[in-house]
Amino acid sequence: MSEVAKLELNGTVYELPVFTGSENEKAIDIKKLRAETGYITLDPGFKNTGSTSSAITFLDGEKGILRYRGYPIEQLAEKASFMEVAYLLIYGELPQAHELENFHNSITKHTLVHEDMKQFFEAYPAQAHPMGILASMVCSLSTFYPESQDPNRGYEAIDLTIHRLLAKLPTLAAMSYKNAMRHPAMYPKNELGYCENFLHMMFGMPTEEYTPDPVVVDALNKLLILHADHEQNCSASTVRIVGSSQANLYASIAAGVSALWGPLHGGANQAVIEMLTKIQEDGGDLQKWVDKAKDKNDAFRLMGFGHRVYKNFDPRAKIIKKAADDVLDKLGIDDPILDIAKQLEKVALEDEYFVQRGLYPNVDFYSGIIYRALGIPTEMFTVMFALGRLPGWIAQWKEMVENGEPIGRPRQVYTGANERDYVPMSDRK
Ligand code: CMC
């Protein structure tokens, strides 16, 4: 017998079907609730609300499990390439060798951006935040491919947009960095792998040959994989909801970039390094900062701590912490910020406040330390997150379109003024 939930309202009992996911996750299906009862549910921040069912990413926050299409994140981070993971997320299965080759070849064909876009960069002030530039540039791509704005385009046209986005995001990201440095932009090199090509565009100069360190390439590959998807987070939900209005994929991804920018989401990686630097400059009194984070009259939070879903530990943070040690060791870098981060983690995890609330280091706590070691400037950290998250956003958008999901349009409970008559200006008190 299928499971049902019973809701009693004003003496009437309503039966609500229970939906069960493939990992035995349970949800009460309220699709007909308003039609049958006149009531809606209220859940600010969607803490208990499933906006969709999805076959892309599974995570269990209590057990610290994260899997893309069933594959554990630990195995993917250890063994896969970012391109393989992108394919897996977007198309549902790990690619065969020829499928991966075709995918990669197609992407490399689209790495250039239109020459006219260079002028956009020139118009930004040198101190412009690269996330602001990235969001605008991704949306601007739609203006170069007007056919992508047709909501009834076929699968082939959608695939072309997907490949263009994967190809051009690294180019645009590197161009925003070069613009900030007032250095000449580097054209992509199509014989390079995805990560190598990005590093070449970031750190190469027209005056001399640049060969990235394999340690740096491997670390970047791992970081991109770890960030590639995280089910219905703020930016993925944004992409799905914008896309549900049939806005084109470029516009939907640009909205995702903007959502990611906030310090409570992807912007935390920049905020963590800024916080650790401040703690160091302030003399390194960790207890003082932990106490500040606990003080409810102080808006300060320990950046890189806590997660909406992980209340035990974030499996990505575990992998990144180890990778940070490895990368710094291999590159022969001694970063005092890493020591402060480790000590802060220890102090916080022994503190009752953090233990009670299940506040553990999240993916962003150690990622900035690796980015620093790779030579990526702090303001570019969230752009790096966006590069990694792109296949996830695309997969989420594609699933939403293929499932024919309705336009996202939450309801509200109105708490404002009741009906009243317009007051002429002269009579207003
Ligand atoms: N420092 C101090 N207190 C915290 C922190 C923190 N970093 N995070 C949560 N709390 C407290 C919060 O004040 C609340 O306390 P109380 O129960 O006494 O009111 C309790 O823990 C629950 O917090 P919440 O804000 O209700 O939890 P949430 O699920 O709405 O927020 C979060 C999750 C990630 C926004 C939050 O933990 C936070 O602001 N963390 C710092 C920013 C950060 O590192 N963000 C990156 C998230 S991981 C990357 C990604 O995927 O986006």
From TrEMBL:
<keyword id="KW-0808">Transferase</keyword>
<dbReference type="InterPro" id="IPR002020">
    <property type="entry name" value="Citrate_synthase"/>
</dbReference>
<comment type="pathway">
    <text>Carbohydrate metabolism; tricarboxylic acid cycle; isocitrate from oxaloacetate: step 1/2.</text>
</comment>
<dbReference type="Pfam" id="PF00285">
    <property type="entry name" value="Citrate_synt"/>
</dbReference>
<dbReference type="GO" id="GO:0006099">
    <property type="term" value="P:tricarboxylic acid cycle"/>
</dbReference>
<keyword id="KW-0816">Tricarboxylic acid cycle</keyword>
<dbReference type="InterPro" id="IPR019810">
    <property type="entry name" value="Citrate_synthase_AS"/>
</dbReference>
<dbReference type="InterPro" id="IPR036969">
    <property type="entry name" value="Citrate_synthase_sf"/>
</dbReference>
<comment type="similarity">
    <text>Belongs to the citrate synthase family.</text>
</comment>
<dbReference type="GO" id="GO:0005737">
    <property type="term" value="C:cytoplasm"/>
</dbReference>
<dbReference type="GO" id="GO:0036440">
    <property type="term" value="F:citrate synthase activity"/>
</dbReference>
<feature type="active site">
    <location>
        <position position="364"/>
    </location>
</feature>
<dbReference type="InterPro" id="IPR016142">
    <property type="entry name" value="Citrate_synth-like_lrg_a-sub"/>
</dbReference>
<dbReference type="InterPro" id="IPR024176">
    <property type="entry name" value="Citrate_synthase_bac-typ"/>
</dbReference>
<protein>
    <recommendedName>
        <fullName>Citrate synthase</fullName>
    </recommendedName>
</protein>
<dbReference type="InterPro" id="IPR010953">
    <property type="entry name" value="Citrate_synthase_typ-I"/>
</dbReference>
<feature type="active site">
    <location>
        <position position="307"/>
    </location>
</feature>
<dbReference type="InterPro" id="IPR016143">
    <property type="entry name" value="Citrate_synth-like_sm_a-sub"/>
</dbReference>
